[in-house]
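Consider the following input, taken from an annotated entry for Mitochondrial pyruvate carrier (Lasius niger).
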Amino acid sequence: MSIIYRNSMNAIAKFVPEKLQPLWKHPAGPQTIFFWAPAFKWGLVIAGLGDLQRPAEKVSVSQSGALGITGLIWTRYSLAIIPKNWNLFSVNLFVAFTAIYQITRAMRHQYQQGALEGTKATPSEAAH
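Applying the prediction step yields:
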């Protein structure tokens, strides 16, 4: 750890209220990457929630699938590491849930489109 970083954290620690000291000193607290990586990853969850307004035909199943799989993998990993990182667990669980919901929307839309095309094709085939 660099001396500049350590000195910065020691200076900030003086202003952290006594009630928040356990969080500040936690092995996965704000002084570590274990805190900040999941904190910024919440941006993926916010983007996923914003995509719920996107029309289902515009949802990428492969992209949502990749997000869902990585969300599930990292959800499991967050419980296997020491210290347990509940922030990492929750953000990845939400990433997985939003991705799975998007996949469900896209697949339902594709199924409905296929059913509509099937009903349109049936009367014309009967006419021939």
